[in-house]
Amino acid sequence: MTAPRQSRIALLAAFLAATALFAAVIWAMAFARGLDQAEARGRSDLALAADRLTGQLQRYREMAVIVADHPAMAPLPVSAPVRDKAAELLLTMADMTGSAGLQLVDASREVRAAGLPSETAPETVPPGVQPALSRALNGALGAAHFTTEAGRRLYAFAAPVFSAAGPAVGAVIVYVDIDAIEWNWPADDAAVFFTDARGTVFVTNRSDLILTRLGADFPRAGSLRFNGHDLWRLDAGRYLPRRALHLVQDMPVVGLRGELLLDLAPVRAVALLQAAVAAALCLAFGAFLFFMAERRRTLARANAMLERRVAARTRELQAANAELRHEVGERAAAEARLKRAQAELVQAGKLSALGQMSAGISHELNQPLMAISSFAENAALFLERGRPEKAGENLTRISDLARRMGRIIQNLRAFARQEQESIADVDLVAVVGAVLEMASGTITRAGVRLDWRKPRAPVMVRGGEVRLQQVLMNLISNAVDAMEETPDKRLTLRIEREAALVRLRVADTGPGIADPSKIFDPFYTTKEVGRGEGMGLGLSISYGLVQGFGGAIRGANRAEGGAEFVVELVPASAAKAA
Ligand code: ADP
Q1: Is the dihedral of CA 213, 218, 221, 227 positive or negative?
Q2: What distance in angstroms lies between residue 248's CA and the mean position of ligand 1's atoms?
């Protein structure tokens, strides 16, 4: 079991305990309040019942006094007719008042006359009435209650009969049958009973309780005090409550004690209901709180999971990003390496072309050098002969030749220099001129006729001057090489202008291209290896250079024989317009 689960169970247990405690407190409060209300009601019921009993008994008491005062009672009748008359009066009174019977007793406690309508009434004065009779014979009013041998409960009042002289000579005793009093009591829902000094139930509205004694055969199973109330638990039939509120009221006038047992079931039910409602409210509130907490916990859990996922995804993305950056770096490095290799290749191509042309170049430089030396000798001779104007002419020729040599060297240097020139507007006519100047030695030595229709105006194209020279140089030396064995050697150079295109054609009268589809592949060559001529790189380098200018290069065989290479370039104006 996990720790949070354990704590939740503990919390639940605590909550249930608190709910139970709360319900118990509510129950106790409701029960106490219910008891207070029940007691108020019970007290008035008990007072009513006590008043009723007292009132009923009081009637017989007053009757005893009135009958004792009757002239027929005193002096005590001795003769039979007088006795009969007295007895008749007593019987009439008994009949009229519903009394169990009346007796006229003399000072020696002998019954002189009696009216006994009910056979329950005693013939002689029962022992239980003797104390009351004594009080009457002393001139006071006596009262007593007792049980006959037949088990009937009787209440008796004894009133003194006074002689003319003053002292009491006898007494009238009125017997009241308790059954007769009880029978017309309304059926109260509370059990009421009246006990005597010994605790015996003498009058009651519950027949089960008659003549039972508290602490003996009274059906009380237990009692307790709650909040100042006396609560009894009973073990009796269905006419007595199982749990009852016990109330007491003293009745000194009749020598009894009124007691009442009020059923607690309604009070308990109400208290239980209130406690149940409180508990239900508590539980509902608790359930609501629990639900809310549960919901919050679920949300928090979902949130945490989401965050974990986001974090994991972020980590993955970061790793992927790092890898990507690494790859980009590697690619950039590879590109740089490639560029370097390409630049080196270009340089190698240039130097190889220069190597191929070196014989022509030395011839090119040698020729003006020889001319210069002979012009110089001539000039010296003319000066000796005193013809300075002729010497000046020669010197001018020397200076022209020197300038031409300077130009050739300058071109060679520019061509051989390894530099990163940017793409710019270049005059294609000038490029052709420079290359022809460098290659003219090679061309003439090979016996090639040059057919070059030079445009009058410059033709500006996008490109690099030196790289364009390199391309053209390569095409020319290839053409010269190709025509080595051809009797009619002719090299044709053309520049054609179109709106969005400048075409440079280089055509020869050689044997043509053996395999036009392969000539731009690197290291493709048909020339003998070892003659120091071809490496098969010239055209592939040229291809890359021209593409770099945004142009194209193609090689094909002509119908009339020989090969023709076409270099297409972007005109400067078109590039600007674009
Ligand atoms: P290389 O000149 O070193 O052989 P290139 O790339 O310049 O390398 O040329 C490749 C091949 O193309 C040549 O070996 C040749 O076979 C062919 N070629 C180039 N120009 C011509 C041409 N004008 N006539 C016939 N074949 C040519």
Answers
A1: negative
A2: 142
* DSSP assigned state of 448: P
- Alpha-carbon distance 480 to 445, whole Å? 10
pLDDT at 7: 85
Q: Quick check: helix, strand or coil at residue 517?
A: coil
Residue 34 DSSP label:
H
CA of 447 to the centre of ligand 1 (A): 19
Ligand 1 centre and the CA of 554: distance in Å?
12
Asked if residue 150 lies in contact with residue 131, where contact means CB atoms within 8 angstroms, the answer is: no
Residue in 460, 410, 453, 404 with CA at minimum distance from that of residue 430: 460
Place of tokens 């009797």: 487
Please check whether residue 468 is in contact with residue 502, taking contact to mean a CB–CB distance below 8 angstroms.
no
pLDDT for the residue 350: 74
Instruction: Give residue for tokens 């490095």.
Output: 333
User: Does residue 369 sit in helix, strand or coil?
Assistant: helix
C-alpha pair distances (Å), 338 with each of 345, 418, 536, 538, 548: 10, 16, 19, 18, 15
Pick from 472, 491, 519 the residue to mutate for probing ligand 1's pocket: most ligand atoms within 8 Å of its CB. Answer: 519
Q: Kindly give the distance from the C-alpha atom of residue 527 to the centroid of ligand 1, in angstroms, as a whole number.
A: 8
Contact (CB, 8 A) for 508 and 483: yes
pLDDT attached to residue 532: 47
Question: Phi/psi of residue 282, each to 5°?
Answer: -60, -50
Residue having the nearest C-alpha atom to atom 3 of ligand 1: 534
Q: Which pLDDT score is estimated for 185?
A: 73
Whether the CB-CB separation of 201 and 195 falls below 8 Å is answered with yes
Report the candidate in 186, 187, 193, 189 with the shortest Cα–Cα distance to residue 220.
Answer: 193
Burial of 428: CB neighbours in 10 Å, binned 0-12, 13-18, 19+:
buried
> Distance between CA 22 and CA 282 in Å, rounded?
9
Pocket around ligand 1 at a 6 A CB cut-off: 474, 478-479, 482, 508, 510, 512-514, 519, 524-527, 534-536, 538-540, 563
Whose CA is closest to atom 19 on ligand 1? 478
Of ligand 1's atoms, which has the minimum distance to the CA of residue 534? 3
User: In order along the chain (578 residues), what is the average pLDDT of each group of 10 residues?
Assistant: 78 91 94 93 92 91 90 73 83 87 88 76 80 91 88 91 84 90 75 90 87 85 89 85 92 90 92 94 91 93 96 96 96 92 79 70 80 91 90 90 82 69 89 90 90 94 90 92 93 93 95 92 75 69 88 94 95 64
Query: Which pLDDT does position 4 carry in this prediction?
Result: 73
Strand partners, 45: none
Q: Find the helix packing angle between 465-482 and 265-384, rounded to 10°.
A: 60
Give Cα 415 distance to the centre of its chain: 76
Helix (H, G, I), strand (E, B) or coil at 126: coil
Composition of the chain by helix, strand, coil, percent to 5: 55, 20, 25
What pLDDT is stored for residue 575 in this prediction?
53
